[in-house]
Structure formats: structure tokens, C-alpha cells
Amino acid sequence: MKSKAPLVMMEQMVMILVFALAAALCLQAFVLSNSLSEQGQARDQAVVLCENAAETVKIGPQESFVAYYDEAWQQAQAPSVYRLEVNGLPQELETLCQAKARVLREADGEELYSLGYAWQEVD
What we know:
Elements (H helix, E strand, L loop, with lengths): L4 H55 L5 E5 L5 E2 L5 E8 L6 E10 L5 E10 L3
Antiparallel strand pairs: 1-2, 1-3, 3-4, 4-5
């Protein structure tokens, strides 16, 4: 009678291979989800910065400025991780002012978020 040990060993090796492949796929999914989470968090912070800049420009005399932020979204000196740019746009009407705020990633120049806005100046 022949031994069935080689067949059992082969079956065990196939099961280990299947579980290793499943573990590799799960690991890739976790890495991707972490990356997407970090991107979403950075975009959320960029939205808040643009909205705050828009409100600040509406009440102040300054229509254009640049601010830099570090990886913890604290204001920093240039160069840093993120850059907030606010630029005034040409006026179409005499009392209607327009500007655009945008947040860029310094490393690759990728725009995380931009916000165009307008307000009316009262003389």
C-alpha cells in the first residue's frame, strides 16, 4: 500500500499559498485605504483653509496673499508642505470684487482644493 503523505503535503502547500495570496490582497487593501484616508483628510483641511481665507479677505483690505502650512496644518515659513494662495480677480462690476483661494501641495504642485468667491463692497 502506498503512503498518502505526499498528497497531504501537497494539499497543505496549496492551502498555504491560497492564504498567503489572500493576506497579500488584504494588506494592499489596507495600504490603499490608509492612503485614501490621508488624501481625504488633507482635502478637508484645504477646504477649511480656503473658506477661512475667503471670509478673511471679504472683511479685510488685502485681496492677495500666500501662506504656508506644515504637515500638521500649522502656519509655517516657506517652503513647507502646503501653500495657500489667494489672488484677486479682475472686477467686472464696480462694486463686485472677486478672488480665488487655492491650496497646493508643495512637493508636486498638486491642487488639493480651490474656491472662487465674490463679495460686494459698500462705499
